[in-house]
Design a protein that fits this description.
globular, four-stranded mixed beta sheet, single chain, 4 helices, two-stranded parallel sheet, 60s Ribosomal Protein L30, Chain: A, alpha/beta
Length: 162
């Protein structure tokens, strides 16, 4: 068994390293829920309008777009969930392309759909009037509110100090 005196310096060094690490990570990803009627893959007009307003805000705030990621999901009990989830994702992508002029190369579609686990009664009550939610995520290219990293399309390394 090691003595307390032997482990104290290691403990202090570990604590010092942990406090030097950033306390939070930055993620520039923005997410919106697109709501569908149960067993439907048609994007409702109200959701097209919400998406249009969301994209307008993104274009104003982020001049460079890296990607839009569309999820493919259904709720338990919906008919043909695999096909339905993928149809929802494709229809969201179609709205982005045809209505909002987002380049197809910027839209990432999933390869498969998933069935969401049932939500709590409380959350179900909150979302009852909204329908079934499918997430759409936006990743801006640099510049954005997080530090741009090597690998970002518009990354510019800091000039060396002279």
């Amino acid at each position: 068994m090691k003595s307390f005196k032997a482990t104290l310096p290691a403990l202090i060094a570990t604590l010092a390293m942990l406090t030097a690490l950033p306390s939070h990570a930055c993620s520039p990803i923005k997410v919106i829920g697109v709501y569908f009627e149960r067993d439907s893959s048609t994007v409702p007009a109200s959701q097209v309008s919400r998406l249009a307003n969301w994209v307008i805000g993104l274009r104003q705030r982020y001049p460079n777009h890296q990607a839009f990621y569309v999820s493919a999901s259904t709720e338990p009990g919906e008919q043909a969930p695999d096909r339905l989830g993928l149809d929802r994702a494709r229809n969201i992508a179609r709205v982005l392309q045809e209505n909002l002029q987002i380049a197809p190369a910027k839209i990432e579609l999933p390869e498969r759909s998933y069935v969401e686990a049932p939500v709590s009664a409380y959350l179900k009550q909150l979302e009852k009037s909204q329908g079934v939610r499918v997430d759409l995520s936006f990743l801006p290219a640099c510049p954005h509110e997080c530090s741009c990293q090597l690998g970002d399309p518009l990354y510019k390394p800091k000039a060396p100090k002279q």
